[in-house]
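hey team, just a heads up i'm posting the complex here instead of the shared drive bc the drive is being weird again. everything in one block, sequence lines first with there labels, then the predicted structure for the whole assembly after. its three chains so it's a bit long, scroll down
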Amino acid sequence: MQIELCFEDFSAMLQQSELIFDFASDHFAMPQLGGHSDYPAVIVEQVPHPHLFSYAGLACEQSQEEEEDHQQLLRVETCESGEEEIMETLVAADSLLNMDCADTLSMEHYSQTFLPSLGDVITTPVTQVTVSAEGVVGAVDQPHWHSLHTKKPAAQLQSKKRSRKPRHRRAESPTPDITVKKDKYNKGGNTLYLWQFLMELLQDRQVCPRYIKWTNPHAGIFKLVNSKAVARLWGKHKNKPDMNYETMGRALRYYYQRGILNKVEGQRLVYQFTSLPKDMIYITDGDGIKDEEDDDISGNDDVVSDDSDSEISSSDQSVEEEDDHPPQKKMSSVSVRAAASHRARSAPRPTAQRDTVLRPASTSLIQEQHLPIVSAEMLRTLQNLQKVQSLQPAGHASVFKTAQLLGSLCERQAAAEVAVDSEGAAETHEKRSHPGQKTPQLVPLTSSDQ
DNA sequence: GATGGCCTAATTAGGACTTCCGGTGT
DNA sequence: CACACCGGAAGTCCTAATTAGGCCAT
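-- predicted structure starts here --
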């Protein structure tokens, strides 16, 4: 597979996009599960994502010209040579595992970042899967992990072609935060779930704690500080201009039945996630205050108006209301570097970045300077690698396999390094993979945590 | 012409909301 | 009175699996 990019506009894509994992599923088994060393091909692809665009659109209305200038320039072509594909895959996998410096993954790298197919040639159609931060949320409740890997009887496999088998059940929430898009060219797909959206907001300094905030982070309890604003954001994301809190609240109430959310009784606009990834990024009020003082990043005006009951106009209704005192969001070292990288690669443009997802220092699997290339979602997914292996994601085996693959690759690389240099290897691995970080844990939340 | 493989469009069905509503509680 | 909250019911949208039909090679 070859990806052609116009790098002039890549910065814009970086700002408003997320990583897409492409991989062939179902044709590998994880060693940890007693299978062979067959792996999916994983193609990390930078594609714009509607929900990120929606953030951008909140405050930064690009001019028509700029809109045209930044039209999609990503083209994907199928490579004729399977051999070449495998080589690229291996190279890209090495890139992912050796991201020691900011330049390791250049734009060129990024445009052709693959994960390896170490033992097998890909023979199945590639499925596009979006992996994002909350990849393990709810997965703890999924009871059929092992069944995903049990070998089907031969007769059953043979008969699946013609006989009408039970329909594939789409991934249900609560499930890992994975969006499966069969048609990879259908970029219009907009499948971020509401609970995922809320988690994203809770990790976004532009809206947390201004419009949504944690009231008891470790219990997963959050409050919709500005329910209207959050609803409008959700409506904007879903391209539902008429979205309001009543409607969104109905969706939230459906989450009660499905065990995704609980209502905190006696407190208005307060809900509780039933489970959270342990490495959830918690933005507190203090963070926001401090950060606003420090921030000087220009062009990050994609914020919604701040007054408690302000309206957030959707882009198709009117220009976003600007805050009288738009909160200056602080960019972490990650974000600052990202912005610098963007500026270095492209002409200045009104940036509508959503790069407020922060990483605690020294907790990233991939060091922070790589974030211009690797989305926060991917980072969190990577950080969940080991935990992921113990989860049971009934509906998303592929993604979890991929996560497991990454973890396995880290281990393999570490093992190889040990063989070559027993002294330096441990340190290198520590540096590359898990710098002082505990394995992320999924935390089932109970009322006792409150 | 028959058969089989491949491709594609159409169909079908399910999940996740969305919309509307009547009602209760604060 | 406004607002939050609840849950039923019906509808919409999106996606993935399946099916049917056309094309082509053997």
